Amino acid sequence: MKKILLLAFLFLSVSIVAQKYYTKTGKTQFKASVEAFEPVEATNNSTTAIINVNSGEIASLLFVKAFNFRVALMQEHFNENYMDASTFPKATFKGTIVGFNLSEISDTKKYILNGILTVRGIEKEIETFAVFSKKEDKLLMQASFEVQTADFKIKIPKIVRNKIAGTITISLAYEFIEKK
User: Fold this and answer.
1) What are the φ and ψ backbone dihedral angles of 48, each rounded to 5 degrees?
2) Whole-angstrom Cα distance, residue 22 to residue 175?
3) How far, in Å, CA of 61 to CA of 147, rounded?
4) Distance separating alpha carbons of residues 75 and 116, to the nearest angstrom
């Protein structure tokens, strides 16, 4: 009897500890547009992210070269001149969803999301709101925040400085599924 209880306890402990949701198709967008000029914006549809729904810990990773621009030349300049994607191929975020409780999410629920964004090897503390909802067996998250190009030592040449915003808006739209 003790063995059965011990096994049941271990099984429940493992399932509680291991309750995670993930995505490999998260959508990350950024906009650095200035009015009256060509839009400077791109989308990455292959962001990988994982949430531990018990602790509220969240982590994400994206490959910089996976951002797609409308204009191919912009994409080339972004990867080679601004992001130095061959030296810094990944951007990451590691943080916490404050007070996260999966059982509280029925329609939509807003939580504070904070953590460290690492771009070009430089870490920046981020705090924003993330809105969560459920759709069938998926956990949906949307968030946005702003960063400065100077925060990550991204140098914009003088010739195009008035065409690219110094403040970049980053938007996230992730559909998580339970990791089994």
Assistant:
1) -100, 130
2) 8
3) 17
4) 25
The one-letter code for the residue type at 87 is T
Tokens of 12: 């429940």
DSSP 78: I
pLDDT tens digits, 107-153 = 899 999 999 999 999 999 999 999 999 999 999 999 999 999 999 99
How far the first Cα of the chain sits from its last, in Å, is 28
Q: Is 36 left (phi over 0), alpha (psi -120 to 50) or beta?
A: left
Tokens of 1: 């009897």
> What is the predicted pLDDT for the residue at 47?
97
Confidence at residue 157, expressed as pLDDT on a 0 to 100 scale? 82
Six token digits for residue 66: 């996976």
CA distance 139 to 157: 41
CA distance 30 to 168: 7
Q: How open is the CA angle 55-56-60, to the nearest 5 degrees?
A: 120
CA separation for the pair 57, 121 (Å, rounded): 21
Do the Cβ atoms of 78 and 69 come closer than 8 Å? yes
Q: What is the pTM of this model?
A: 0.86
What Å distances lie between residue 96 and 32, 125, 130, 177, CA to CA?
26, 12, 11, 18
Closest by Cα among 35, 31, 26, 27 to 147: 31
